[in-house]
Amino acid sequence: MSRNIIAILRGVTPPDVHAIGQSLIDAGIDKIEVPLNSPDPLESIGILADAFGEVALIGAGTVQTTKDVADVASVGGKLIVSPDCNPDVIRATKAAGLASYPGVMTPTECFAALRNGADGLKFFPGSLVGVDGFKAVSAVLPKGTRSYAVGGADASNFADWAKVGITGFGIGSAIYSAGITAQDVRTRADKIVAAYDAAMPA
Q: Residue 131 and residue 163: Cα distance in Å, rounded?
C-alpha cells in the first residue's frame, strides 16, 4: 500500500540518511524528500535514490531554481517539492521527467501550477491555509487534483483534513528532526501511518 505521505527530512546528514530511509520504508512511507537547505542534500538524495529508488519516490524539497531541479535529477531524484509556485521550476521539473509538487495558497497559484504541469499541489503552510481555507479553494479545483497539506498537518488532525478532501500530507518534524535516531524515526512514522490509515479513505 502506497500512502500519500511525504516524509520531510530537513537537516538530515549523509551518514544517517540510509538508516532513516529504511525506517520510513519499513513503516510504510515510500515518498521521501530531503530539503535543499539540509547539510549536503544532494549526497543524501543520491544515497536514498541508489538504495531505495526502485521502491520509493525520492527527491528534494525547498527547490527554488531550475538549476536545483537539474542537480536533483543528476543524483537520481525523482520528486521536486517547492515552497512556492514558480512556473519555470515546474516546467523544468516536468521536462526532466520528475514529479512536481509546488507550494500554493491561493486559487491563482493553484491554477498557475496546474497549467504549467504540476502533478499535485502542496498547500503550505497548512496551518495558515487551514481546513476551511482548503475546503473553499478545493471547490474550484479540477476533479482529481492531488493535494497535500504541509506545515500544520499531523496525526492529531488528519481526520479533519480528510473530511474536506485533502489527498495527502507532507510531514516534517512530526517524523524527523535533526539528530534523532533511525529507531526514533520508526516510532514516529508508525504513529503517523496509523493515524493516516484511520483517517483517510482506502
A: 9
